[in-house]
């Protein structure tokens, strides 16, 4: 769970045990935009030496040079945003980079792999999800996942893992019928984020935090993942997916689990994943009526966001003109455990919003009594602890202080920790995950039971929305905080979302 630092000088780097990384889908977007930059960072940091080999697989005819040229022309800035520097680390990695053309469904591909591969291998499935099960089956049937004493075989599976509870269960069953859980690494790149891992440190390395971390002291928790990006060129994928499936049972639930899990007895992978699975399994599953009551769907219209004009979601390429797919979702969830009983968890995520901001806001209970003569309880807003996951990475603690002066009056102040931007600059989250796969640490990878628990909690929303033809998603203007209905979800409980942009009603 240590994040390799882009700056070699800062860390105690140890080359990882060597292996071959086989990337299925090496000519695709994920490989170029997120996987290669992470590998370059690891190489630069001294974690990968020149015995580390990469074998890319894709449809396209070609050889190692074709793949090297393709990836070499890509700017490895964070998430493909540019300004990255490949430099010597890329040249060194590229020397060990080869390519094999083939079809994932073709047995000849696996026969060739059997001849070519020896020693420890990580198979990375950067492929359309419909191939996850097939590739694992074929790898296993060709003996490619069989481990030896001195050679491991690990399979990394990308997201989305399933489309609903039934398909996630079926995929788990298919994969686990061939390869044991100990060799399967289901990726959720949010778990690779330094700031998500820091929630664990904040909770379990600080007595003052953990003692207050329960329903005695906390009144509500908000988890927000707001994006300014629109659906862009991903219409085909997104229209079949929507905001709920794309972000909630995976990324937002992993944050929720990190916030709510009990302290593991120790930090080995099984203990950590046991605790996460338990708490995800404790999210209340709603009936149809409750699911409608506790959810809000939105879909963006045409407008302006982050300085550019965007088309309405329904006018996006590969999106149905009458699509009812949500580009925004807000939920109120409950976690039925002693620690969290009665504490609402409000989750929201959406595209084309006014700001990019992923954050967790923990709101503590009001003071029981206003002691100062000149203040009323209403003048004493509750303390909030805010984990800024991205882009302004840090932790803020909102407290009340005495306003300097002769009167006793309070005002809000913030105790703030900000990450050194330089330390996070080049990290995509995949560095940490690659590092852990190569070390065989599964703590930050999703286990089958946790995946299914996540789908179990969101399935009632999918079912209720599918049945509820009358009310589709509520339109919202790009550049706002989302649909008005999301505000009402909290107003009903006498609360307001932590403001990420001007209030919706000011902008919409
Ligand atoms: N891109 C991203 O930002 C993210 C992607 N993911 C996940 O990563 C996975 C890959 O996504 P992405 O890279 O965007 O997808 P792409 O469609 O860009 O890439 C898919 C790759 O698979 C290859 N491929 C497809 N079908 C076959 C086949 N039958 N035989 C051989 N090769 C084949 C493609 O080759 P060719 O192009 O020649 O057909 C291409 O190399 C998906 O599961 C996605 O959900 C997860 C998070 C973020
Ligand atoms: O997996 C996904 O995550 C991204 C958001 O990830 P981030 O690291 O950029 O915050 C999201 O845009 C995409 O739709 C989803 O598939």
From TrEMBL:
Keyword Oxidoreductase among UniProt keywords: yes
Domain (Glucose-6-phosphate dehydrogenase C-terminal) ranges? 201-498
Keyword Cell division in the entry? The reply is no
Which residues are in the Glucose-6-phosphate dehydrogenase NAD-binding domain? 22-198
Q: Report the sequence similarity comment from the record.
A: Belongs to the glucose-6-phosphate dehydrogenase family.
Taxonomy of origin reads: Bacteria, Pseudomonadati, Pseudomonadota, Alphaproteobacteria, Sphingomonadales
Q: Name one GO biological process term.
A: pentose-phosphate shunt, oxidative branch
Quickly give the catalysed reaction. D-glucose 6-phosphate + NADP(+) = 6-phospho-D-glucono-1,5-lactone + NADPH + H(+)
**SUPFAM superfamilies referenced in this protein's UniProt entry, alphabetically:** Glyceraldehyde-3-phosphate dehydrogenase-like, C-terminal domain (SSF55347), NAD(P)-binding Rossmann-fold domains (SSF51735)
The record, for InterPro entries, names: G6P_DH (IPR001282), G6P_DH_AS (IPR019796), G6P_DH_C (IPR022675), G6P_DH_NAD-bd (IPR022674), NAD(P)-bd_dom_sf (IPR036291)
Per the UniProt entry, the Enzyme Commission number(s) are 1.1.1.49
Listed GO MF terms? glucose-6-phosphate dehydrogenase activity; NADP binding
Active-site residues?
A: 251
Associated pathway? Carbohydrate degradation; pentose phosphate pathway; D-ribulose 5-phosphate from D-glucose 6-phosphate (oxidative stage): step 1/3
Per its record, how is this protein called by name? Glucose-6-phosphate 1-dehydrogenase
Organism per entry:
Sphingomonas zeae
Region (Disordered) spans which residues?
Answer: 68-87
Q: Which residues cross the membrane?
A: none
For binding substrate, which residues are annotated in this chain's numbering?
189, 193, 227, 246, 351
The UniProt entry, under Pfam families, shows: G6PD_C (PF02781), G6PD_N (PF00479)
Function statement: Catalyzes the oxidation of glucose 6-phosphate to 6-phosphogluconolactone.
An example GO CC term for this entry is: cytosol
* Keyword annotations from UniProtKB, A to Z: Carbohydrate metabolism, Glucose metabolism, NADP, Oxidoreductase
What residues does NADP(+) bind to? 103-104, 159
